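step=encode ok
step=design start
structure_in=
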């Protein structure tokens, strides 16, 4: 996708236009600033409701949500672990992408942090046969959450992430 995006932008530039390339998933340092603000909102809501927040578990695809929430947690000095459930690609490549975005987001926001690459939490084992392809565990998670919480999830991102969360909870 990135190659096609670059080719289209180059073609448009050749026509005298000035395209702005939005990366896959909108994942960029600028886009990730929104998730830094999301971390602030989650912390405020948890505080106002008296709910101790120790973990944020999310689907990690193009990496922007993960990087932005992690940057927000670090900027706010929260004692919260951000745990990504890998739903796309090989986990080492995904982790490298999240790390790169995290560094760019922290730099753009002017936040210095001792957080190291080894501190990044990205769980593997939930992708199944590939991106966009449902897994049995993801479909079961979708049915369970719909039945118990009246919450509808999708089979590409949130269903796989919920299956990861359920699995991690079962394993303690």
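sequence_out=
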């Amino acid at each position: 996708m990135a190659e096609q995006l670059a080719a289209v932008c180059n073609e448009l530039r050749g026509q005298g236009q000035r395209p702005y390339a939005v990366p896959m998933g909108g994942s960029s340092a600028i886009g990730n600033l929104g998730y830094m603000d999301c971390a602030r909102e989650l912390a405020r809501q948890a505080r106002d409701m008296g709910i101790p927040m120790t973990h944020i578990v999310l689907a990690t695809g193009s990496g922007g949500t993960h990087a932005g929430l992690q940057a927000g947690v670090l900027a706010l000095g929260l004692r919260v672990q951000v745990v990504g459930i890998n739903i796309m690609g090989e986990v080492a490549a995904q982790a490298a992408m999240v790390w790169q975005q995290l560094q760019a987001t922290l730099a753009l926001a002017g936040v210095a942090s001792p957080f190291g690459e080894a501190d990044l939490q990205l769980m593997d084992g939930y992708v199944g046969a590939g991106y966009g392809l449902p897994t049995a565990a993801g479909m079961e998670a979708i049915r369970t959450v719909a039945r118990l919480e009246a919450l509808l999830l999708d089979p590409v991102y949130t269903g796989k992430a919920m299956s990861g969360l359920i699995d991690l909870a079962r394993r303690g």
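step=design ok
step=annotate ok -> The mean pLDDT is 95.
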